[in-house]
Automatic annotation (TrEMBL):
Residues 406-517 form the Histidine kinase domain. Its main location: membrane. The keyword rRNA-binding does not apply. It is a multi-pass membrane protein. It catalyses: ATP + protein L-histidine = ADP + protein N-phospho-L-histidine. It is an enzyme of class 2 (transferase). It comes from the Bacteria. CDD domains: HATPase_DpiB-CitA-like (cd16915). This is histidine kinase. The keyword Amino-acid biosynthesis does not apply. Pfam families: HATPase_c, PAS, sCache_3_2, SPOB_a. It is found in: Cell membrane.
Amino acid sequence: MFSQLLLMQLAIAAGVVVLATGLFLAPLSDQLDDQAMRRALAIAQTTAAVPQIAEDLRHTKPSVDGPVQQEAERIRKASGAEYVVVMDLSGIRWSHTEPGQVGGHVSTDPRQALAGEDVMEIDSGTLGRSARGKVPLRDSDGRIVGAVSVGIEYDSVRARLIHAIPGLFAYAGGALAVGALAAWLISRRIQRQTRDLAFSDISALLAEREAMLHGIREGVVALDRAGRVRLLNDEAQRLLGIGEEAVGRSPDRALGEGRTADVLAGRVTGTDLISVRGQRVLVVNRMPTDDGGAVATLRDRTELEQLGRELDSTHGLIDALRAQDHEHANRMHTLLGLLELEMYDDAVDFVGEVVGDHRATAEQVTEKIEDPLLAALLVGKATVAAERGVALWVSDGTRLPDRLIDPRGLVTVLGNLVDNALDAVAGKPHARVEVELRTEGRTAILRVRDTGPGIPADQRELIFTEGWSTKKPPAHGKRGIGLSLVRRLAERQGGHATVGEAAGGGAEFTVVLPEALTGADLEPVLAAPATTDAEEASR
C-alpha cells in the first residue's frame, strides 16, 4: 500500500508540475511574439520618421546603390532587424537585405500600410517566417508616398523561448522534488496509521467490521468527541427503538431526556448500568475511546429480569408456604394436646376458631377488592407479612370493583410497593403496612403506608430512578427496578406515582391511574397474558 500510495502521489505531483509548466510556456510564447512584433513596429516607425528617405523615394529610382537602400541597411544593421524594406505606392521594393530583391514587388500585401494603418503580424515572406511591423511613409506634407516594413527573425523569438525553458525546468524540478518529499512523508505517516495494510486489506476489514457490528446480538453505539452518535448497529436500533436518522444527533435529541440518554452521554457512570427503554430492560456499559469519543454496549436483560422476578415470586411463594406450614404445625400440636387431654369440646371450638379466622381474612379482602388477582395477591402477602412479624391491613376505605382495564399492571404496582414496605418495616417493633385501594369515577387510587423510617425529602424523587437502591443487590442481578417500574407503569396510563410522609411516621406511596376502569355499561377489557415484573418493565 505504501508504494502504491507513493507512486500515485508522485504521479499527481509530476502531472501538476507538467501542467503548470505548459500553462506557463503558452503565455510566454505569446508574450515573446508580441514583444517581437512591437519591436519591429517601433523600428519601422523610426525608419519612416527619417525625412530624407521619403525625399529620396520621390526623386530617385530603386537601386542597389541608391540612397534609400543604403539608409535602410544602415538602420537594419544598427537595430538588429532581419530586414528593413522601403516600398513605394505600387509595392515596389527600394531596399532589401538581398540586393537582388530591390526593384521587385513585395511578397506580402502592403495595402493596409499604404492606407495609413500600422500593422503588426507574424507572417512568412521571402526570408521566411518573421515578426513584422508595417507603417506608412509620409513626405514633409504628410502625404503617403510609400511604406516601411521591418521584420524580426522568428527564430530569434523561438531561441529566447528555448533559452527560458531550462530555467523553467529547474524551478519545475525543484517543485517536483519538494512534492516527492512531501508525498513520501505523507505516505510514511499513512503507512504507520494503517499499519502497512493494503487498500484491499482495509476494504476487507471494513466489510468484516460492518458484518460483525450488524450481526452480533449486542447493541453497539459509537459517539464522537462532540457527543454525537456516529454509529448504530442493527441490534442497538432495535433495542433503543430508533433508526439511522439518529446518526449525527446527540443522545438527548435521538432518545429524548431520560436515564438511557444520560448513560450514553456519560452523565451517569459505572458498569452494568440498568436502564428501561420502551419495552426493554437494558444493561449499558460505556467506554471512552482515545479520540475523545465513546463506545456503549447494550444488552437486552428483559428475559433475565423476567427469570429473576419469577425467582423472587417463587421465593415469596415458598415463604408463604413455609409460614402456613409453621402455623399449621402449631395448630395441629395444639389440637393433638387437647385430644390427648380428652378436652374434646375445647378441641372442636379451637378448630372452629382457626377455620373461622382464615375464612374471615379471605372474605374481608374479597369483599373490598372484587378483582380476583389483586385479592389473591393481598391474601398471599398477608401470609408472608405474618411470618415476618408484620401486620398487613386493608384500609376500611378500600373499595375496588372488578372492572379494571389492566389488572395485571396494577398487580405489579401493588406487589412492588408492598414488598418495599415489608422490607422497610421488617424487624421493627409494631411493624404495620396498610393498603388502600379506591376509585373516583374511572380513576384508581392506590396507597401503601408503612411504619418504617420513611424517605428523606431529598431522596423522594431519586428513589424512582432506575438503578437506585439502598438495598443489597440480589443474586440474579441489580436492584433499583421496582419503583422505577411503578412510576413507568403509572405514567404509561397517564397517571403518576409519588411518595410522602405517612401520618405517624413512615412512608406513604400514592399511585393515581386515570381511566383505569371500564365504564359501568361497558364490558371489561380482556387483560393480556400474565406477565412478570420484568415484562412490565419492557412496556
